[in-house]
Design goal:
The complex is a heterodimer of chains A (147) and B (216). Chain A has helices at 2-9, 38-47, 57-79, 87-106, 114-140. With 147 residues, chain A is mainly alpha-helical. Chain B has 7 helices and no strands. Classes of the chains: A mainly alpha (147), B mainly alpha (216).
Chain lengths: 147, 216
């Protein structure tokens, strides 16, 4: 179990959610894939010709293609009938995937110093919290708090 | 980190307390504040969603095919942006200028789509004063449009600088910072397209209120 935890979370264990370290702490470990894992790391090295700190032109085209396909998928889902209650969750999920794709790869957060990620993620969390509180207040705000 | 290692990865360590470039950190701090700025307007739209008592309603007026094309255009401008930055860093001036110009053109096309949409809506009777949908819709998409306009002007300056050799490998950070802004405009639109257009497109009048008769 300790070994699994180390693999998932520690940088030298190539943890899949670990972001690369930036110049302020230590170098990107060599041969690190964008989201970790051996098979993806190998694919990544092939696509970027071994350049681990920044992606190459081919990879950017690949990300752009995937984002375009997801957009087409969203529009196609919009035309479908019968998704019912799944419609909104699926669209939100696809939207999050596109959002993360642009932020991680086009804005280079995946390859950049972690502090930038913390900045942006903190703002996202605060924003979502404000939004959630606003929705709750609007729904229950006109009702007595206790009785 | 050793100096040799830094040289190997071409990532200079900034002489600041954080080790990060202050201008880049400032841009990320700005984007973090802009997240909350847009978040509030999106939340406001959702809070008042479906509460318009008079039309036109989203189901009567939103044009998903047109907006899908403009969304695709903006998404591809992000790809062009990252390619432009790549070529500036690689020292390939002509390719860099070309891709930055592509960003300018695609951004201008997106603005054209938005102008067309606003004009059509106004023609069909939807203005910011018509109903709560019009107010929240125009404020949100209008502010986003203002961001795009600023971005297009910024990118036009970048293309000019690149063409005349003022944007080089050693100051590629100028374009990187501009690019962060441009990509942010794109991710905001990703959320707007999903929430305002796709999810709200079937919103009609509230219960007990009839549909709008659009003259025109």
């Amino acid at each position: 179990m300790a070994n699994l935890w180390h693999k998932l979370t520690q940088h030298d264990g190539n943890g899949w959610w670990n972001l690369p370290h930036g110049p302020s702490n230590e170098l990107n470990p060599p041969f690190e894939g964008p989201i970790g894992g051996a098979w993806f790391g190998n694919l990544w090295r092939t696509l970027t010709h071994g350049n681990v700190s920044h992606a190459g032109v081919g990879f950017y085209w690949l990300v752009g293609f995937v984002l375009a396909v997801i957009t087409l998928l969203e529009v196609w889902l919009f035309t479908l009938e019968g998704l019912g209650g799944w419609f909104i969750p699926i669209l939100l999920f696809l939207s999050v995937v596109k959002f993360v794709g642009v932020v991680a790869y086009f804005m280079h957060l995946r390859f950049d110093n972690r502090m930038f990620t913390f900045f942006f993620a903190s703002a996202m969390i605060i924003g979502i919290l404000i939004f959630s509180i606003l929705l709750v207040i609007m729904k229950y705000g006109n009702q007595p708090v206790l009785f | 980190m050793t100096q040799a290692a830094a040289t190997e990865h071409h990532e200079p360590v900034e002489n600041t307390s954080t080790g990060l470039n202050s201008r880049k950190l400032m841009m990320w701090a700005f984007l973090a504040s802009d997240v909350m700025f847009f978040g509030v307007f999106i939340a406001t739209y959702l809070v008042y969603r479906g509460k318009s008592l008079v039309g036109p309603y989203p189901s009567e007026i939103l044009d998903i095919p047109i907006t899908s094309v403009s969304t695709f255009v903006l998404l591809m401008s992000s790809l062009a942006m990252v390619l432009g930055l790549h070529y500036v860093k690689a020292g390939e001036k002509n390719k860099a200028t070309l891709w930055i110009l592509v960003v300018v053109v695609l951004g201008a096309i997106f603005m054209g789509f938005q102008f067309y949409e606003f004009r059509t809506f106004a023609h069909e009777g939807l203005t910011p004063r018509t109903n709560i949908f019009g107010t929240t819709f125009f404020i949100l998409t209008g502010i986003h449009g203002a961001h795009v306009t600023i971005g297009v002007i910024w990118m036009a300056f970048m293309a000019y600088s690149s063409h005349f050799g003022q944007l080089r490998q050693d100051n590629a950070l100028d374009l990187e910072i501009a690019g962060l802004y441009w990509h942010f405009v794109d991710i905001v639109w990703i959320v707007i397209f999903t929430v305002i257009y796709l999810i709200s497109a079937s919103d009609g009048p509230p219960l007990g209120v009839g549909p709008t008769i659009i003259h025109g």
